[in-house]
Amino acid sequence: MKDLSLHILDIIQNSLAANAKLIEISIDENERKDLIEITIKDDGKGMSKEFAESVTDPFTTTRTTRKVGLGIPLLKQNAERTGGCLTIDSQLGQGTIITAAFKPSNIDCPVLGDIAGVISLTVSGNPSIDFVYNHKINDNLFTFNTKEIKEVLGEIPINDNSVYKLLKELIQSNLEEIESIGYKT
Ligand SMILES: Nc1ncnc2c1ncn2[C@@H]1O[C@H](COP(=O)(O)OP(=O)(O)OP(=O)(O)O)[C@@H](O)[C@H]1O
Ligand SMILES: [Mg+2]
Q1: Which CATH fold topology does 4-181 show?
Q2: Could you report the per-residue pLDDT of 121-167, keeping only the tens digit for each?
Q3: Who's near 97: CB < 8 A, 6+ residues apart?
Q4: Ligand 1 pocket, residue 58 CB under 6 Å
Protein backbone atom coordinates (compact mmCIF):
# COMPACT_ATOMS: atom_id res chain seq x y z
CA MET A 1 0.00 0.00 0.00
CA LYS A 2 1.04 3.56 -0.70
CA ASP A 3 2.56 5.69 2.07
CA LEU A 4 0.55 8.80 2.90
CA SER A 5 3.46 10.93 1.66
CA LEU A 6 3.17 9.33 -1.79
CA HIS A 7 -0.57 10.05 -1.84
CA ILE A 8 0.32 13.63 -0.97
CA LEU A 9 2.78 13.72 -3.87
CA ASP A 10 0.00 12.51 -6.20
CA ILE A 11 -2.37 15.23 -5.08
CA ILE A 12 0.33 17.93 -5.35
CA GLN A 13 1.00 16.70 -8.89
CA ASN A 14 -2.67 17.28 -9.72
CA SER A 15 -2.36 20.85 -8.43
CA LEU A 16 0.76 21.43 -10.53
CA ALA A 17 -1.02 20.04 -13.60
CA ALA A 18 -3.88 22.46 -12.87
CA ASN A 19 -1.38 25.35 -13.17
CA ALA A 20 -1.43 26.31 -9.51
CA LYS A 21 0.96 29.06 -8.47
CA LEU A 22 0.45 28.60 -4.73
CA ILE A 23 -0.01 25.22 -3.08
CA GLU A 24 -0.67 24.81 0.61
CA ILE A 25 -0.03 21.42 2.20
CA SER A 26 -1.34 20.84 5.72
CA ILE A 27 -0.89 17.71 7.79
CA ASP A 28 -2.45 17.37 11.22
CA GLU A 29 -1.54 14.24 13.17
CA ASN A 30 -3.47 13.91 16.40
CA GLU A 31 -3.26 10.76 18.47
CA ARG A 32 -5.93 11.82 20.97
CA LYS A 33 -8.41 12.46 18.20
CA ASP A 34 -7.22 9.31 16.41
CA LEU A 35 -6.97 11.42 13.29
CA ILE A 36 -4.53 12.25 10.54
CA GLU A 37 -5.94 15.02 8.41
CA ILE A 38 -4.26 15.98 5.14
CA THR A 39 -5.31 19.07 3.23
CA ILE A 40 -3.93 20.23 -0.13
CA LYS A 41 -5.17 23.61 -1.26
CA ASP A 42 -4.32 25.17 -4.61
CA ASP A 43 -5.17 28.18 -6.74
CA GLY A 44 -5.21 26.20 -9.97
CA LYS A 45 -7.89 25.98 -12.63
CA GLY A 46 -10.39 24.13 -10.43
CA MET A 47 -13.18 21.76 -11.40
CA SER A 48 -16.88 22.08 -11.99
CA LYS A 49 -19.15 20.59 -9.31
CA GLU A 50 -20.17 17.73 -11.62
CA PHE A 51 -16.62 16.89 -12.57
CA ALA A 52 -15.38 17.02 -8.96
CA GLU A 53 -18.13 14.60 -7.98
CA SER A 54 -17.25 12.20 -10.75
CA VAL A 55 -13.54 12.07 -9.90
CA THR A 56 -14.10 11.14 -6.25
CA ASP A 57 -16.37 8.25 -7.00
CA PRO A 58 -14.58 5.31 -8.62
CA PHE A 59 -17.97 3.70 -9.37
CA THR A 60 -19.41 6.62 -11.24
CA THR A 61 -20.77 5.64 -14.65
CA THR A 62 -18.84 8.38 -16.46
CA ARG A 63 -15.61 6.56 -15.58
CA THR A 64 -16.42 3.84 -18.08
CA THR A 65 -16.85 6.30 -20.91
CA ARG A 66 -13.77 8.46 -20.41
CA LYS A 67 -10.31 8.00 -19.05
CA VAL A 68 -10.03 9.13 -15.46
CA GLY A 69 -6.93 8.67 -13.36
CA LEU A 70 -6.61 6.82 -10.10
CA GLY A 71 -4.89 9.33 -7.83
CA ILE A 72 -8.01 10.63 -6.11
CA PRO A 73 -10.09 7.40 -6.05
CA LEU A 74 -7.15 5.50 -4.50
CA LEU A 75 -6.65 8.12 -1.81
CA LYS A 76 -10.38 8.08 -1.09
CA GLN A 77 -10.44 4.29 -0.90
CA ASN A 78 -7.46 4.15 1.46
CA ALA A 79 -8.89 6.87 3.71
CA GLU A 80 -12.30 5.19 3.90
CA ARG A 81 -10.74 1.82 4.59
CA THR A 82 -9.44 3.22 7.90
CA GLY A 83 -12.81 4.77 8.80
CA GLY A 84 -11.85 8.18 7.42
CA CYS A 85 -13.06 10.09 4.39
CA LEU A 86 -12.11 12.33 1.47
CA THR A 87 -13.71 15.58 0.44
CA ILE A 88 -13.18 17.84 -2.56
CA ASP A 89 -14.05 21.48 -2.52
CA SER A 90 -13.38 22.98 -5.94
CA GLN A 91 -14.46 25.94 -7.98
CA LEU A 92 -13.77 26.45 -11.66
CA GLY A 93 -11.20 29.19 -12.15
CA GLN A 94 -10.64 29.53 -8.39
CA GLY A 95 -8.87 26.46 -7.10
CA THR A 96 -9.27 23.22 -5.24
CA ILE A 97 -9.12 21.98 -1.67
CA ILE A 98 -8.75 18.25 -1.12
CA THR A 99 -9.02 16.91 2.40
CA ALA A 100 -8.34 13.32 3.39
CA ALA A 101 -8.90 12.00 6.91
CA PHE A 102 -7.35 8.77 8.17
CA LYS A 103 -7.77 6.94 11.47
CA PRO A 104 -4.25 5.96 12.54
CA SER A 105 -5.45 3.33 15.06
CA ASN A 106 -6.85 1.31 12.17
CA ILE A 107 -4.55 -1.52 11.09
CA ASP A 108 -5.06 -0.52 7.45
CA CYS A 109 -3.77 3.03 7.97
CA PRO A 110 -0.65 3.57 5.83
CA VAL A 111 2.46 5.07 7.42
CA LEU A 112 3.28 8.69 6.67
CA GLY A 113 6.57 7.71 5.02
CA ASP A 114 9.22 10.12 3.81
CA ILE A 115 7.28 13.35 4.00
CA ALA A 116 10.45 15.45 4.39
CA GLY A 117 11.75 13.97 1.12
CA VAL A 118 8.46 14.53 -0.72
CA ILE A 119 8.13 18.15 0.40
CA SER A 120 11.74 19.13 -0.23
CA LEU A 121 11.79 17.41 -3.64
CA THR A 122 8.53 19.09 -4.67
CA VAL A 123 9.67 22.50 -3.48
CA SER A 124 13.11 22.35 -5.08
CA GLY A 125 11.74 20.79 -8.27
CA ASN A 126 9.22 23.60 -8.83
CA PRO A 127 11.13 26.82 -8.22
CA SER A 128 8.49 29.09 -9.77
CA ILE A 129 5.66 27.77 -7.57
CA ASP A 130 5.14 28.85 -3.99
CA PHE A 131 4.40 26.33 -1.28
CA VAL A 132 3.18 26.63 2.27
CA TYR A 133 3.73 23.58 4.45
CA ASN A 134 1.99 23.24 7.81
CA HIS A 135 2.62 20.10 9.83
CA LYS A 136 1.07 19.58 13.25
CA ILE A 137 1.91 16.68 15.50
CA ASN A 138 -0.26 16.49 18.61
CA ASP A 139 -0.97 20.24 18.55
CA ASN A 140 2.65 21.35 17.93
CA LEU A 141 3.13 23.12 14.61
CA PHE A 142 6.04 23.28 12.19
CA THR A 143 5.44 25.56 9.23
CA PHE A 144 7.36 27.03 6.35
CA ASN A 145 6.68 29.21 3.37
CA THR A 146 8.85 29.10 0.25
CA LYS A 147 8.43 32.88 -0.17
CA GLU A 148 10.37 33.32 3.07
CA ILE A 149 12.88 30.63 2.20
CA LYS A 150 13.58 32.26 -1.18
CA GLU A 151 14.23 35.54 0.63
CA VAL A 152 16.67 33.93 3.03
CA LEU A 153 18.43 32.13 0.17
CA GLY A 154 18.96 35.40 -1.67
CA GLU A 155 21.14 34.71 -4.70
CA ILE A 156 21.00 30.94 -4.31
CA PRO A 157 18.12 29.48 -6.36
CA ILE A 158 15.73 27.20 -4.47
CA ASN A 159 16.38 24.44 -7.02
CA ASP A 160 20.11 24.47 -6.25
CA ASN A 161 21.36 20.98 -5.37
CA SER A 162 22.45 21.99 -1.89
CA VAL A 163 19.02 23.42 -1.04
CA TYR A 164 17.18 20.12 -1.43
CA LYS A 165 19.38 18.47 1.19
CA LEU A 166 19.17 21.46 3.48
CA LEU A 167 15.39 21.61 3.25
CA LYS A 168 15.03 17.90 3.88
CA GLU A 169 17.18 18.12 6.99
CA LEU A 170 15.34 21.22 8.17
CA ILE A 171 11.97 19.48 7.87
CA GLN A 172 13.19 16.21 9.36
CA SER A 173 14.76 17.78 12.44
CA ASN A 174 11.78 20.04 13.07
CA LEU A 175 9.31 17.16 12.80
CA GLU A 176 11.40 15.15 15.25
CA GLU A 177 11.39 18.10 17.60
CA ILE A 178 7.66 18.78 17.55
CA GLU A 179 6.98 15.05 17.88
CA SER A 180 9.09 14.89 21.05
CA ILE A 181 7.22 17.78 22.73
CA GLY A 182 3.87 16.04 23.09
CA TYR A 183 0.64 17.75 24.14
CA LYS A 184 0.81 21.11 25.87
CA THR A 185 -1.89 20.15 28.36
N1 LIG B 1 -6.24 20.18 -7.98
C2 LIG B 1 -6.92 19.98 -9.11
N3 LIG B 1 -7.31 21.02 -9.89
C4 LIG B 1 -7.99 20.84 -11.04
N5 LIG B 1 -8.34 19.62 -11.51
C6 LIG B 1 -7.99 18.53 -10.80
C7 LIG B 1 -7.26 18.65 -9.56
N8 LIG B 1 -7.06 17.41 -9.07
C9 LIG B 1 -7.62 16.57 -9.95
N10 LIG B 1 -8.17 17.22 -10.99
C11 LIG B 1 -8.88 16.62 -12.15
O12 LIG B 1 -9.32 15.34 -11.77
C13 LIG B 1 -8.77 14.34 -12.62
C14 LIG B 1 -8.56 13.08 -11.83
O15 LIG B 1 -7.48 13.21 -10.91
P16 LIG B 1 -6.73 11.90 -10.43
O17 LIG B 1 -5.56 12.31 -9.61
O18 LIG B 1 -7.71 11.00 -9.80
O19 LIG B 1 -6.25 11.25 -11.78
P20 LIG B 1 -5.18 11.79 -12.86
O21 LIG B 1 -4.35 12.86 -12.24
O22 LIG B 1 -5.92 12.11 -14.09
O23 LIG B 1 -4.31 10.50 -13.12
P24 LIG B 1 -3.27 9.81 -12.11
O25 LIG B 1 -3.36 10.52 -10.79
O26 LIG B 1 -3.70 8.39 -12.02
O27 LIG B 1 -1.94 10.02 -12.77
C28 LIG B 1 -7.52 14.97 -13.20
O29 LIG B 1 -7.21 14.42 -14.45
C30 LIG B 1 -7.94 16.44 -13.32
O31 LIG B 1 -8.68 16.64 -14.50
MG1 LIG C 1 -3.50 12.58 -10.29
Answers
A1: Heat Shock Protein 90 (3.30.565)
A2: 999 999 999 999 999 999 999 999 999 999 999 999 999 988 999 99
A3: 39, 40, 41, 42, 88, 89, 90
A4: no
